[in-house]
Fold this protein.
Amino acid sequence: MLVPMLGLLTGAAAPRATVSTALYGTLADGRAVQRHTLTNARGMTVEIIDYGAAIARISVPDRAGKAENVVLAPGDLAGFVASRRRYGAIVGRYAGRLRGAALVDGKTYPLAANALGVTLHGGDPGFDHAVWRGRAFETRRAVGVALVHHSKAGEQGFPGALDVTARYSLARDANVLTLDISATADRPTVANLTNHSYFNLTGGGSVACHSLAVDARRWVATDTRRLPTGVLPLVARGPLDFVKARPLGPSLHSTEPLIAEGLDHMLVLDRGGTAQLSDATSGRMLTVSTTEPGMQVYTANALDGTDRDAAGRPLARHGGIALEPQHFPDSPWIAAFPSTRVSPGHPLRWHTQWAFAAGRPTPCDAGNAA
C-alpha cells in the first residue's frame, strides 16, 4: 500500500496505457507514413509504422527497470524503403520459399523467381514494402493498432484479390504483445503470412549470449535449393535440437554443414508449442506462442552492417534472431503439409503472442560463447 499512497501524496499519476499516432515520414510519391506508439502501465513501448505494417521498436525494461529496444530496425523511413531485410514487417503473400510458382486447385501460376527458380516471400515488392492503412484502438484490456492492406488480383503473380488485416494489441497491465492476422480472398488462392522481427534482448551486439528453446521435435528437410523435400526428420541430438534450452553461440560459429552459416530452418512445432528466448547479459526473456504449425528460426546470417539503426549502429550479422511463426514453405506443392488455401467464405487466420519477462542477469563472455 505504500507506493500507491506515496503517489497520492506527491500528486504523481499512476502509469497508464496509451496509444498515439504521428507522422513518421513521407515517401517520394508524397504518401504519408504514420507511426503508432503503444505504451502500457508496465513500462513497455511498441512502435508500429504503416510501411510494411512493421514493428519499428519494442522497448522493454529489465529487472532493474532499464528499458532497451529489443528489435532490429532502420532508424528512419528511408532505411525501411531502401532495405530488403524486411525488418519487423508483415511478409507476404507467401512467407518462405515456393518453387517459382503457386499451385491453386490444380492450376499453376508463375511467380517471380531467382536464378535457382525459387520465389522468396512471394517476390518483390511484397507486403513489407506496401503502405498499410492503420487505425489506433483501445479496449478494456489493451491498446493497439489495426492495419489493412488490399493486394490486387495478379499482384506478385498470385490469383485473386486478398484483403489482409494485421491487428497488434499491447496488454495494458502486462508486457505482452499480440498479433492477429486475417486474410480473405475473392477467389481461391494461397497465402502464408508472418511477422519478420529480429530480436536482440540485450539491445545490441551479437545474440551469442542468448539461449533458445523450441517445442519442436521435427524440422522441415530441404534440398539444395532450400525447398522442402516433404520429409520431416527428428531433431533429436542434432544441431537443430532445441527442445531443451541451448545457447546460440555454438550455432553461430558451427562447422556442422547443416548450420554452417547459422540457423535458417523451419522447425515443426508440437501442438501448442512455443519458443523461449533468453539473454544472459540483461536477464530479459521472451516467449513466443502461436497457432501456426511451424517456426522459421533465422539468426540474421545475411545482415552485413549496411543498414543502421536509430543510434547509427550497423545492423550486423548475427545481431538478432527472427522467430517467424508460419506455415511450411512450398505447402501448395506438398499435399501432406497443412493447407495454405484461402477462398471466399474460408478466410485464413494467424495468431502470434510475444510475452516478455525480466529475469536475473548472469555472466556471459560473448567471445567464448561459441
Q: What stands out?
A: Residues 19-368 form a domain with the Beta-galactosidase; Chain A, domain 5 fold (CATH 2.70.98.10). The radius of gyration is 20 Å.
